[in-house]
Design brief:
The complex is a heterodimer of chains A (about 230) and B (about 400). In chain A, about 35% of the residues lie in helices and about 30% in strands. By secondary structure, chain A is α/β, with parallel strands linked by helices. Chain A has one domain: P-loop containing nucleotide triphosphate hydrolases (Rossmann fold). In chain A, the strands form 2 sheets. In chain A, strands 6-7-8-3-9-10 form a 6-stranded mixed β-sheet, sandwiched between helices. In chain A, strands 2-1-4-5 form a 4-stranded antiparallel β-sheet, with helices on one face. Chain A is globular. The mean pLDDT of chain A is about 90. Chain B is an alpha+beta fold and about 400 residues long. Chain B folds into 2 domains: about 200 residues, no CATH class; about 200 residues, no CATH class. In chain B, strand 7 and strand 8 form a beta hairpin. The chains are: A alpha/beta (about 230), B alpha+beta (about 400). Chains A and B meet through helix 2 and helix 3 of A and helix 1, helix 11 and helix 15 of B. Chain B: It is found in: Cell membrane. Chain B: Keywords: Cell membrane, Membrane, Transmembrane, Transmembrane helix. Chain B: Belongs to the ABC-4 integral membrane protein family. LolC/E subfamily.
């Protein structure tokens, strides 16, 4: 039986409710099952990033609830929510967002250190992950010494480090050239297939949309369509 | 360990800013150390000069003597007491004294004087009394039948060396004390009060004159380090018979000097406080820049699972590290500076030298190298950096990850 991993129930988000209200997301119902590879698409300002942030517990909905793997994260305290993210959700952001003073190896290992994973085990996992994303030879390079595509692959390795159930990616290919984007998507698709990690992207990028098996389209903060497709 | 490493790497992101901030801390610490060392050195020198001529750092009396300073409240000279005192490693010298008041007379002049029965050999080891002789000679032994007068007193009585001084006072148990002595020397003392009133006399002569054989009013105690005063007082109180003797420190016996030092120190603390206040703004500005520049990154760290209190701790460590860098450099600079002036102290010259010597204070500026000065400055900087880190820490605790990421 397929398990629902993300359940956004009647979720709304209104910015500036007391002055000039902006309804970024309105009464959205989305269920995402374990192992899905979903693209969240829509024009700029349609509420993709806001919905993604609420699903990742980075932002609080004005109304509704978000349940991840049976836990209603909208009811968790701030500290518990941070802990929940640490153990269950991996994030990949648009502009790489690595810690600039740490090497690729240290960036990936950082999350594991937060989880208090022993050093030996940590190092083994970091090397495996960097090998998986094709950066075994760059483990001691700092972000400034890596290309955009390489940095984004380190970010993916970091997102995977804690063995999350879900990876949320906000426009992960927006700053990449076609070759780097294709390479990144292949890595993600492989991880989704082999490790059953659920991927949810907000994107404009047709290359990402084509790789997705399900495409949810948002328009003016509402779900306009939700279709299954065969990735190409 | 991870947080320490992260904090250390973060402070070097902007090397120039970190160096400028640490340098400002360096100068603040260096100035504060030199300033405190100089003032403490001057105070220590002043205390040593004053107590060596007068009370000693500590004094042992018969219980009740200080409240009623009468010859009847003297105590029997006790070799066992001397042994106990000298056995203490912090005690460097002891000076038995018989201190009384008498009427001094020469020709048609009379004056009330302080008669100090002293052991001339023991006194000269501590206060170089023999070096202050301006006419005649110093008394050589405890039984020498001669006295040395303060130069001011001699001028008042209009007497010279080899003249005969008559002393008339009250002896032990209401006997009368009267004797005449040859004036062997005149002494110039910095303390005007003493210079105008004191008669130094060998202790045995004084005891004989007062009919108080082997009796003392006090035993003055000199110690190895002025900072050991409290500890030594306590240990002496414990080691001698507290039913017979009382132990008093110079602070209790010369409270006006202690109060002067306290008041003067307060003014210095205010100056140092202002210095640190100014430096604090520089450090605070750096910390604010560090948090504003990295707001986006802090948001990312919270998003990937780093607790806000850990982030606040990283900022606190960064603040402490920058401060301590400057502080350690300042302490090392301070140590080198003070070491130099310990080897080559400043010898005052000209009028300033005369002013110092007129007050009976050695005309050399010493710097204190007491470890308390360095520890205090390090602690002050540490506390300032911790306090300053509270605001960035508060900002982190209030940070909303999405707002920070989008900043």
């Amino acid at each position: 039986m397929v398990k629902t991993i993300i359940d956004a129930h009647n979720v709304s988000k209104t910015f500036n409710p007391k002055t000039v209200p902006v309804h970024a997301v309105q009464n959205v119902h989305v269920h995402i099952e374990e192992g899905e590879f979903v693209a969240l698409v829509g024009p700029s300002g349609s509420g993709k990033s806001t919905l993604l942030n609420m699903m990742g517990g980075l932002d609080e909905p004005t109304a509704g609830s978000v349940i991840i793997d049976g836990v209603e994260i909208t009811k968790l305290s701030e500290n518990k929510l941070i802990d929940f993210r640490l153990h269950n959700i991996g994030f990949v952001f648009q502009s790489f967002n690595l810690i600039p003073v740490l090497t690729a190896k240290e960036n990936v290992g950082f999350v594991l250190q937060l989880q208090h994973v022993p050093k030996m085990e940590r190092e083994k996992r970091v090397l495996t992950l960097l090998e998986e994303v094709g950066l075994k030879d760059k483990i001691n390079s700092k972000p400034g010494e890596l290309s955009g595509g390489q940095q984004q692959r380190v970010a993916v390795a970091r997102a995977l480090a804690s063995k999350p159930k879900i990876i949320l990616a906000d426009e992960p290919t927006a700053n990449l050239d076609s070759k780097s984007a294709a390479n990144l998507l292949d890595i993600m698709a492989k991880l989704n297939k082999e490790e059953k990690i659920t991927f949810l992207f907000s994107t404009h990028d047709q290359r990402v949309i084509k790789k997705a098996r399900r495409v949810i389209t948002l328009v003016d903060g509402k779900v306009a369509s939700d279709v299954q497709q065969t990735p190409t | 360990m991870m947080l320490l490493k992260l904090a250390w790497l973060n402070i070097w992101r902007n090397k120039r800013r970190t160096i400028i901030t640490a340098t400002s801390v360096f100068f603040a610490v260096l100035l504060a150390i030199v300033f405190r060392s100089l003032t403490d050195g001057v105070y220590d020198n002043m205390i040593h000069n004053v107590v060596s001529y007068s009370s000693g750092y500590l004094q042992i009396h018969q219980k009740g003597y200080w409240d009623e300073q009468s010859i009847d409240n003297t105590f029997q000279e006790d070799q066992q007491l001397y042994q106990v005192l000298l056995k203490n490693s912090k005690v460097t010298h002891i000076m038995p004294r018989l201190q009384t008041f008498a009427l001094a007379s020469y020709a048609n002049k009379t004056k009330g004087v302080l008669v100090l029965g002293i052991d001339p050999i023991k006194e000269r080891e501590v206060n170089n009394l023999h070096d202050k002789i301006v006419a005649g000679e110093y008394i050589e032994s405890v039984s020498d039948n001669a006295v040395v007068l303060g130069e001011g007193l001699a001028a008042h009585l209009k007497l010279k060396v080899n003249d005969t001084l008559i002393l008339l006072g009250q002896g032990y148990h209401a006997s009368s004390a009267a004797a005449k002595f040859r004036v062997k020397g005149l002494i110039k003392l910095g303390a005007l009060e003493l210079n105008n009133n004191v008669v130094y006399m060998p202790i045995q002569q004084s005891q004989y004159m007062h009919g108080a054989e082997n009796r003392l009013t006090s035993v003055s105690v000199m110690l190895d380090k002025a900072t050991n005063l409290k500890k030594l007082k306590q240990s002496l109180q414990e080691s001698i018979d507290s039913n017979t003797y009382e132990v008093m420190s110079w602070k209790e016996m010369i409270p006006e000097m202690d109060q002067f030092i306290e008041a003067d120190s307060t003014a210095h603390y205010i100056i140092i406080g202002v210095l640190y206040f100014v430096i604090s703004f520089g450090l605070f500005g750096t910390l604010l820049m560090m948090i504003f520049e990295r707001k986006h990154e802090l948001g990312i760290l919270i998003a990937i699972g780093m607790k806000k209190r850990l982030l606040a701790l990283v900022l606190l460590l960064e603040s402490i590290m920058i401060s301590l860098l400057g502080c350690f450099a300042g302490v090392i600079g301070g140590i080198l500076f003070i070491k130099w002036f310990t080897i080559y102290p400043i010898h005052l010259t000209g009028e300033l030298k005369e002013v110092y010597e007129d007050y009976g204070i050695e005309s050399i500026i010493y710097f204190s190298s007491h470890e308390k000065i360095f520890i205090t400055q390090t602690l002050v900087v540490l506390i300032v950096s911790i306090l300053l880190a509270f605001y960035p820490g508060y900002k982190v605790m209030k940070l909303k990850p999405v707002e920070a990421i989008n900043s």
